Amino acid sequence: MWDNHQLLKGLANFLLGASLLMLLYAGGFWVTHAPVFPVKKIQIQGQMKRVTPEQLRFIAEHELTGTFFTLDIDKTRAAFGKLPWVRDAQVRRRWPDALEIAVEEHVALARWGENGLVDSHGDRFDAASDQQLPVFHGPAGAEKDMTAMLARLRQGLKPTGLAPKDIWLSPRRAWQVGLDNDLKLDLGRGDVELRVERFALYWKDKLAALPYHIDYVDMRYPNGFAVRMPDYKAPPAQVKK
C-alpha cells in the first residue's frame, strides 16, 4: 500500500478535502452563532390601532433569542401572534442586523356571546373591546357562516333603516335576528334572504305605520308573516240583539 503512490495521493487529497470542509463548517458555524451578529433593529410595519408599541417591545425583549442567522423565524412569528389583537405576523431578515415584522390586526366585527370577538374574516379571537358590536349566538364552528349572514342582513335591511343587534343560529340551522329597535325577526331555515327582503318591503309602509309596538315578526310563512304586538287589545265583540 505504501508503495502505491497513486493510492497515497488520492488519500492525501481526500484528507485535504475533508479538512477544508471541516474548516468551512467551523467557519460557517462561527459566523452564524457568533455574538458579533446580533439583531439590532426591529422594524414594525402595518396599520395598528389596538396593538401598542409597549406590547411589541415586550415581545422583542423577552421572546426573541439568537443571532441574526440563528433566530427562529417561525417562533418569532408565533411570539408576536400571542398578542390578542394580532391576526398575523410576517417576519423577514434584513441584512445586516434587522428584522422586518409586518403585523396584521384583527378587525372586530361582532361579539361571540359573552366570550370573545369575531373578526371580519370570521375568525374568533379573545380580546377586550368597548365597541358597540352585534352579538353572535350560535354553535361552535359557525363563526364564518354568521359573519356571512351579518353582511347579507345588513344589505337586506338597508331600506328599513334598521340594523342587526343580535343574531341567533340554532343547531338545526334556523336563524333569528334581534334588531336595534328591539324587534325580533324569526327567519327560520332556507330562503332567509327572501324573507328579509319581504320584511323590508312591508316595514316602512305597513308595519312601522301601525299604532302599536311590535316586538316580534315571524317571517317563516310562505307568502306572509305574523306579528306580535304586546299592547294591542282587540275591540270587545259586539253582541247582536
Helix-strand layout with pairing:
Layout: H1 5-33, E1 41-45, H2 53-63, H3 73-81, E2 86-94, E3 98-105, E4 108-112, E5 117-119, E6 124-125, E7 135-137, H4 143-157, E8 164-169, E9 175-179, E10 184-188, H5 192-207, E11 216-218, E12 226-228
Parallel strand pairs: 1-3, 4-7, 7-8, 10-11
Antiparallel strand pairs: 2-3, 4-5, 5-6, 8-9, 9-10, 11-12
What labels describe this entry?
241 residues; alpha/beta; Ubiquitin-like (UB roll); Rossmann fold; 5 helices; elongated
Question: Could you characterize the architecture of this molecule?
Answer:
There is one protein chain. The chain is of the alpha/beta class. It has 2 domains: 65 residues, membrane protein fhac (Ubiquitin-like (UB roll)), CATH 3.10.20.310; 121 residues, Cell division protein FtsQ/DivIB (Rossmann fold, 3-Layer(aba) Sandwich). It contains 5 helices and 12 strands. The strands form 2 sheets. It has a 9-stranded mixed beta sheet with strand order 6-5-4-7-8-9-10-11-12, covered by helices on one side. Helix 4 links the parallel strand 7 and strand 8. Helix 4 runs parallel beside helix 5. The longest helix is centred in the first third of the chain and has 29 residues. It is elongated. It is found in: Cell inner membrane; Membrane. Its main location: membrane. It is a single-pass type II membrane protein. InterPro entries: Cell_div_FtsQ/DivIB_C, FtsQ, FtsQ_C_sf, POTRA, POTRA_FtsQ_type. Part of a complex composed of FtsB, FtsL and FtsQ.
